[in-house]
Amino acid sequence: MTEVATAPAVPVTGRAHASLARLVRAELRWIFRRPRTLVVLGLLAVIPVIVGIALTLVDSPGPPGGGPGGDGGGESLLATAGGNALVLPVGTLAMALGLLLPLSAAMSGADALAGETAHGTLRGWLLAPVGRGRLLLVKSIGVAVFTVTATVVMALTGVLTGLVINGTGSLFTLSGTTLSFPAAMLKVAIAAGWVALQLWAVGAVALAISAWTEHPMVVLASVLGGVIVFSVLGLLDALDWLHPFLLNHSWTDLGDVLRDPMPGGPLAEGALRAGCYIAIALSLAYARLSTKDG
Amino acid sequence: MNPKKRAVTVAVAGTAIGAAGLAVMAMPAGAGEAPELPPVSAQELVSSVLRADVPALAGTVRIENDLGLPSMPGLPVLDADSARVYHDGDEGSRIALEQGSSELTVVQSGDTVWSYDSAENSATKLTVPAEAREHRAHAEEEFSDPASAAGRMLDYVRQSSTVSVDGTASVADRPAYELVLTPKPTERTLLREVRIAVDSETRVPLRMSVLTNGTTEPALEIGFTDIDFAQQPANLFQFTPPQGATVTEERPQAHDERLPEGAIGEFSGEGWDTVYVGTVPAELTAAPGSEGRDVQGMLDQFGTRVSGDFGSGYAIETKVGTAIVTDDGRFAVGAVPQQVLTDALAQR
Predict the structure, then answer these.
(1) Which residue of B has its CA nearest to A284?
(2) Which of A129, A137, B229, B334 is the 20 to 30 A CA-CA neighbour of A10?
(3) Which member of B11, B26, B105 has the closest CB to residue A175?
C-alpha cells in the first residue's frame, strides 16, 4: 500500500497511465495478504467437503423427497447431492449463496473503502494523482477477483469431494442424463460464474455503502440486513410485484444449471438483474467517491 | 464540468439505467396486440387441429392455477408449475416437470417410456404393450377423415355448448385463433367458458384456459410461454438410468390393477353438468395413518359439513368444481354447484 501512495508522486506525467495493472496488482496483494481473506476462503473451501462427507455418512435409506420439497434452493438440492458429484458443488454454492457468500462479498466491499478510511490508508489513494474513477475501478476489480476466487475455490473442492466419494460415473443431471467430465465441468463453471456475478452485485452494493461511511461494520450490517430483508420480502406472496426488483429473487434458479437441456431464461434474467444492481451501485459509489475530500 | 455536477450526473444516469432495466424485467409479459388473421369457421378450425401432426418442437409450458384449492400435503403433482416439453415430430417426446429444486423427467421413444425422479434418484421403465398401440392406431383411424370427425365432434359438443372462434390472441409470441366453448344457459355449471388458443400456422393447441363465473382471471390456464418449432437433437429422446438409480420395470396390464376394487363409479348427467358418482374404496377411509394419508383429517380440515336427502357428508368447494364425500362412503365430483351433486347423490 505504501508504494502505491508514494510512487506516483515521482512521475507526475504518468497520472493518466499510472499503470492500471500495477495498481490492481498492489490492491490484490493487499487483499490476499489480509489474514481474514485467507480464513474466509479456507472456510468456504471446507464447506463442500463437510457437506459431502456428512451426506455420505448419513446416507438415509429412505427417499429424501419425503419431506416438504421445494422450500428453498440449496437445501432440497443437497438432498440429491449424496450420490452425485455434479450436484454437490452446485448445491453447496446454492446453499452458501443464501448467506455466507454474500457475507464474504460484503466483507470484501467493506474493507475496500470503509475499512481503508477507518485505518487512514484511503487518504493516500485520495491524495495520490489517481483518478477517482480509476480508484473505484481498481477497488471493484479487487472485489470481483475476490468473489470469483471464493466461488471457484468452493466449486473446486465440491467437484473434488464429489469425485472422491462417488467417482466419475456420478456426474449426472437432475434430468438423469450422465455427463462426460468436460461437459460436467462446463456446467459447474457456468454455475460458479453466475454465482460470482451475483456476488459481484452484492459487492458493488457494499462498495457503494462503503464509499458513504467510514465504519466497515455499517457496511457489513446493512448488506447482511438487506439480504435478510430481501429474503423475507421474497417469501411474501402479497408482494409479488416487488419480487423482480429483488436481487436474490433468482438465486433459487441456480438449480436450473443442473437440468438438461438447461433452461436459460431465468438464469439470463438473474444475470441481467445483477448487472442492473452493479450499474446502480457503482454509479452511486463513483458519485460519492469523486466528491470525497482527501 | 465541475466534479460535483459530474458526480450527480453519473449517479442519476447509472441509477436510471439500472432501475429501467429492473423495471423492464418486472413488467409482465403483456398479451400484446391481437394479431390480424384471416377468419376461419369453428368447424374448419377443429378439423384442421385434428388433421395436424404435431411437428418437432421445444417449449416451456406454464400451469397457472387459481382454483381456490386448499394446498394439500402429499399431492406433489400440483406443486409443479412449469414443464419443459420436447417432441421430435414422430414418436419421441420428453417432458421435464420442475418441482422446486428437483425434476421429474418422462422420456418416451416408441413403445418405451422412462420416467426419472431426481429427488429419489429412481427410474421406472414402462413398455407399452402391443394391444395398446393397436388400440391407439384404431382410434387414429376413426379420425382419419378429420372433416367428418370434426363434424361429429362438434355436433356432440353443440348439444350442450356454443362453439365459436372468438378473435385472435398472441400466445408465446405466435399468432393464434381462440376457440371458445361456452355452456348453454340451461347447463348448471360453475364454468363460464373454456378457451383454446390454436396456433394459426401449425394448428397446434397452444393454450387452454378455464374461466369461471364471476371472475376475469382464468381459474386454470395451461399454455406455452415459449415454443420453438425446430428439429430436436435425437439424444433428448433416449434415456439411460444414471449411476446409483433404483430402476423398476413395469408392464401395464389390460386394466390397471393398482386401482383398488370398488372405486369405480359412473357418470351421471350430460354435457357440462356431468357428475361422477361412485364409492370411496374402503382402504382409503380405513385406519388413518397408513402411508401418512389421513383422509378423515383432511376432510375435517378442508371440507364443510353438508346434509340433505342424500344423507350427510363433507363438501369441498373450489372455483371450478365441487366434491362431496358422504359419511357412508359415497362420493360425487363435478364442475357444478353443490346442489347438482346432492341431487345426483340423492337419485342413487
Answers:
(1) B11
(2) A137
(3) B105
